[in-house]
Each structure stands twice: as C-alpha cells, then as structure tokens.
Amino acid sequence: MATPTLDKVEGAKPASVASPYITVTFRIRRYNPEISSEAEWQDFPIEIDPKERVLDGLHKIKWETDGTLTFRRSCAHGICGSDAMRINGKNRLACKTLIKDINPEKPITIEAIKGLTVLKDLVVDMDPFFQAYRDVMPFLITKGNEPTRERLQSAEDRERFDDTTKCILCAACTSSCPVFWNDGQYFGPAAIVNAHRFIFDSRDEGGEQRLEILNDKDGVWRCRTTFNCTDACPRGIEVTKAIQEVKRALITRRF
Amino acid sequence: MSAETTSAVGPVEGASLYDVDNPAPLIEPPRKRTKKSPKTTRTNFELYGWLFMRLSGIVLVVLVLGHLLIQLVLDGGVSKIGFAFVAGRWASPFWQTWDLVMLWLAMLHGANGLRTVINDYAERPTTRFWLKNLLYTATVFTVLLGTLVIFTFDPNIR
After folding, report:
1. From the CA of A181, how many Å to the nearest CA of chain B?
2. Which of A2, A164, A235, B40 is found 20 to 30 A from B140 (Cα to Cα)?
C-alpha cells in the first residue's frame, strides 16, 4: 500500500506519472492540560498520497514532524475501534477514511470526539462510555442448568440481531448524539445497540432485565431520532433502527 | 519538575503547569455514580410520556385542524367570531367537549414536549429545575383557567 504502483497509465498524459503525492493540510485540535487549559487548532502541511488514509497522515506527523501529537490507534484496520475522531466535522475512523474522499484541497480538520472529556489532543476519557455499556449487561444471561451441548439457534433467529453484532465500540455513534453531548447520563446509542444484540437473541433470557434498564428515564426514551448515530457508524449498523426496535419491544411488552 | 528528578520521559513540551506537589485537577467522569447522580426510577413514566405524545398528536391533528377550519375558513371566516358566536357554540355539549379535550391535550402535549426540550438543552441542574417549575406553573394555570371558563361560561353576562 505504501508503494504506489503505476502500471495503468492513461495514454494522453504521461507527465502525470511523476508523483502521486500532494500537499494536504491537517488542521488538528491540540489540547494539553499540562501546558494550557485552552485547546487550539494547529496546521500541519504534509506530503501524502491521497489514496492513503487519514491515519497514515497522523502517523506521518507523529513520526516525522511532531512527536507530541497524541491519538489512539491499535489495529489500524477498522476492527479495534480505537481511532474514532471527528474528521471534517463528522465522526469517522481515521483508519477507514481515505484522504481523497474528504476533499484534500481544503484543510482537513481533525478533533477529538465530542461529549467525552478530552485528556490530550485526540484522546478522550472513554470511562463513561464503557460504564453505559456495562450497565446494559452485555453478556449472555440464561436460567437453569447448562446444556451438555451448544445452544442451537436457527439461521432466522441469528439474522434477527445480526446487524447489532457488528459493533466495535468505537463510540462514533454515542459521541455524535446531541442528547449525549448535553447529558452524559443518557445511555447513548452504542449501549442500546449492544443491549439490542442480546434482547433479540433467542438464546438469551435476560431481555426482560435489559428492557427494564433501558425503560429508565435516561434510557431509550431520550432518543430524539436524529439519525446522527446511523450516519456516524463506521460499520454501517442501522443504529437508530435498533433503538426504535427496543422502543417497540418495550411498548409491545406493556400492551 | 526539577532537573534532578530522574524520569524516563524528558520534558518534551516545555514547562509543565503541574507537578507532584501541585497535581492537575481531577475531572469527574460524567456517568460515575455519585450521591448527586439520578437514581434509577423503575417506573414507566417515560414510556407513557412517549406514547402520549404519539397518540395525542394524532387526535390533535383532527381537533386543531377542525377548529381552525370552523373558526377561520367556513361560513364567513374570522369576521363572524364574536361573543354571540362563542356563546352559541358553547351552548352545545359537543363543542364544549371538543374545546375541553383540545385544551387538555394541546397543553399536556406542548408541556411534555417542552419538558424534553428543557431536559435536552438545560445544562445546569438549577436552570433545569427553575425552567421546569415555570413550565409546570404556566401549564397548570392555563389548563385550570380554560377548564373553568368552559364550564362556568355564562352567555347572559353583561
């Protein structure tokens, strides 16, 4: 990936094979509480192939320009969910966003996800997010004796909650939710998605408890259906739909 | 940080505001359970509130559009409205009920909507408390006054 190959050259323009690199400005919101209590924007002009990802640009800055730039990333391939950040005002994974897809002619703004306490630069305190996740009991709950063989499930039953199994807990949805920005007590889309994954699992018997938790005043009823979460999800989960399904389950359980 | 302190990490970003004797302020995470954090309620209030908004909304579409049509469009439009017109309408229990139901549903629907807006937008607990107090007072006052007028309306008043 780092070596650009140019075997397909358009006949008319042989001059364009020279260099795939362009100059892109990364405008990053820097914050270091040990230096200043104010966050400020800092511009980094870098030479980069537009087919590379935003994460590659951040690496380039950290490794070659400014080693103090702080951000999270682990697998760098869209699976671990560490590098969710606000790129050009939209929550995305830096490792899944190609520079050519976000208009490299203008400065690319990069800031930490909103609604969680910024610790340094692009790193936020994820504790509240994971506390909400823990609160919905994201594990299989069963009654009675353990079966001697695996818990079987039909393909249709598996399909019922397939969409919400894709969550990687990157917090892109929760930190795009305007209700969560203003009131951190709201569970947030990610926690509801992970509750949905077990509520609609035919093998699970803790659905009643989870619904009871999400029926609380900071549960699903605070959702305003703005679809920010569905737009933000890097895994393409229909988050708002999942929340609505939990609401419907609560209504049909009652009436 | 004094130069003698052996640290694995050097002072890479200039002078630090904080050190061992003067640590950075502790930031309390938003979802941490403290004495101030709201208790779990285990009631269905929000569920009924949500359902009420949907159901009252459907009924209000009929009631309000019907009301506007009768008052402003049909039979001479707005110019016909006067004391005599209101007195004539409220002589019938049907229109009394219509107006009463419309008053209650519209006020509760609007108040509940504003309650959620306050919950979403007011950041400080005291702001929230006073805004809600104002809202509930205004709602109760309007609903009671309206109900009183509908039931004690006297067409022969001079």
Report:
1. 9
2. B40
Fold for A127-254, please state it.
Fumarate Reductase Iron-sulfur Protein; Chain B, domain 2 (1.10.1060)
As a whole number of angstroms, the distance between CA A31 and CA A38 comes to: 7
Choose among A68, A185, A221: nearest Cβ to B31. A185
Q: How far apart are CA A18 and CA A12, in angstroms?
A: 14
Instruction: Choose the closest CB to A217 out of B12, B18, B41.
Output: B41
**A120-148: average pLDDT:** 92
Q: How far is CA B130 from the centre of its chain?
A: 12
Q: Which residues of A touch B121 (CB under 8 A)?
A: 182
Shortest CA distance from B32: residue in chain A: A128
Q: Inspect the interface and report whether the beta carbons of A178 and B120 lie closer than 8 Å.
A: yes
Point out the residue among A34, A127, A217 whose CB comes nearest to the CB of B46.
A217
Helix, strand, coil distribution of chain A in percent, nearest 5: 35, 15, 50
Nearest CA in chain B to A221: B46
Range of the domain at B127: 45-152
pLDDT tens by residue, B3-52: 444 444 545 555 667 777 877 777 665 556 566 666 666 788 899 999 99
What residue ranges of chain A are covered by domains with CATH 3.10.20.30?
Answer: 19-124
| Residue B7 Ramachandran class (φ > 0 left, ψ -120 to 50 alpha, else beta) | beta
Most confident of A5-14, A217-226, B24-33, B72-81: A217-226
pLDDT tens by residue, A57-66:
999 999 999 9
Three-state secondary structure call for residue B143: helix
